[in-house]
Write a structure and sequence with these properties.
This protein is α/β, with parallel strands linked by helices. The protein has helices spanning 3-8, 35-45, 52-66, 76-85, 90-106, 108-111, 120-125, 156-170, 174-179, 192-195, 200-212, 230-237, 243-246, 256-262, 282-289, 292-300; strands at 128-130, 140-144, 181-186, 218-224, 249-251. The chain has 16 helices and five strands. The longest helix has 17 residues, at 90-106. 34% of the residues are buried.
Length: 334
């Protein structure tokens, strides 16, 4: 569906949750959160179940009014991702949604033909996977191993595509929207020549996507086995990081005990001193590859409308800042 068709469709007022019943052609949202997670979302994300659909409709109305040619999906479940990522602050959720589309349109090398089958070699290499066990906070652990990449086989952008699709799959879960994720990055064996592929240009774009252009809450980045050159890599990355995100980086070196203070052994595979068996990438690869049709459907709704000018899109080096105006909700940090 296009943004125009959704926005010109008669919309109910945002007065009550029952308004969702008047949109028969849009999938009806059904909450899948447990009672504990509903409480957590209320306390940490300012999400009130009795106002949830009213908040979604308010964001939908803002999109239709301010960005009628955005070409975005306007389903309840999709918009909820952005509200949760910005603690139900309407203005910040709208900004995140616009940035999400801007990032996708400003980096065609990453986002064109983006589907699991297109990045199968990256998945098979083990560059990125998701551990089968959650951490004690109910968060998935995304494991990234740059040493599994051979630059002569494919460019670094293929790795970025694989990470992005992994996050897209994870964020489909309401539990992940509330709990966030943890990243485990193993830099064992990363040489200077390989690190040189991740220069300031790529670093700024990747951070722009993850920090300001994607509706996921990254709660910690645990770096293990980092070589001396990682100080140089982090020096490239740090200027682009917000202080809150920079403070969530934990450098453990070769100290597994230090890692276990952040991610307990029961969550980790044997390779990292854990007790959950050998690291197995096959289960995640099968799950992601089996989601091909889901991605084709979801991403087909995110095409740049033909009546949009390139000048309406953001530069790949910047994120949009919406005009300041009184927020419909109390401004909270994400």
């Amino acid at each position: 569906m296009s943004g125009d068709s959704d926005c010109t469709r008669t919309s109910p007022s945002a007065g009550s949750p029952s308004d969702n019943e008047f949109l028969p052609d849009r999938p009806k949202y059904v909450c899948s959160l447990s009672p504990d997670l509903i409480t957590k979302a209320r306390e940490q994300l300012q999400e009130k179940p009795e106002w949830r659909l009213r908040d979604v409709q308010a964001l939908r109305d803002m999109v239709c009014k301010d960005y009628p040619s955005l070409g975005t999906c306007l389903d309840d479940a999709f918009l909820l991702r952005f509200l949760r990522a910005r603690k139900f602050d309407y203005d910040r959720a709208l900004q995140l949604l616009v940035n999400y589309h801007t990032c996708r349109r400003s980096w065609p090398e990453v986002f064109n033909n983006l589907k699991p089958s297109a990045i199968k070699p990256v998945l098979e290499s083990g560059f990125v996977t998701v551990l089968p066990r959650l951490d004690p906070e109910g968060r998935h652990v995304v494991c990234i191993r740059p040493d599994r990449w051979t630059p002569s086989n494919y460019p670094i952008t293929e790795n970025i595509r694989a990470i992005y699709l992994t996050l897209e799959k994870l964020i489909q879960s309401e539990e992940t929207q509330v709990n966030g994720i943890v990243i485990l990055a193993d830099y064992k064996g990363v040489s200077l020549s390989k690190a040189s592929h991740f220069g300031p240009f790529v670093a700024k774009k990747v951070i722009g996507v993850l920090q300001d252009g994607f509706p996921i809450r990254i709660k910690a980045v645990n770096v293990i086995n980092e070589p001396r050159i990682f100080k140089g890599i982090f020096a490239i990355i740090k200027p682009f990081l917000k202080e809150k995100i920079a403070n969530r980086f934990f450098l453990h070196g070769c100290d597994l005990n230090s890692l276990h203070q952040n991610i307990p052994p029961v969550t980790l595979p044997e390779e990292y001193g854990g007790t959950s068996g050998k690291l197995d990438i096959s289960a995640w690869n099968e799950l992601l590859l089996a989601s091909e049709e889901d991605f084709l459907h979801d991403f087909s709704q995110l095409v740049l409308p033909c009546d949009s000018s390139p000048h309406d899109m953001l530069s790949p080096y910047s994120m949009i800042t919406l005009p300041k105006k009184p927020s419909a909700t109390t401004v909270m940090t994400s």
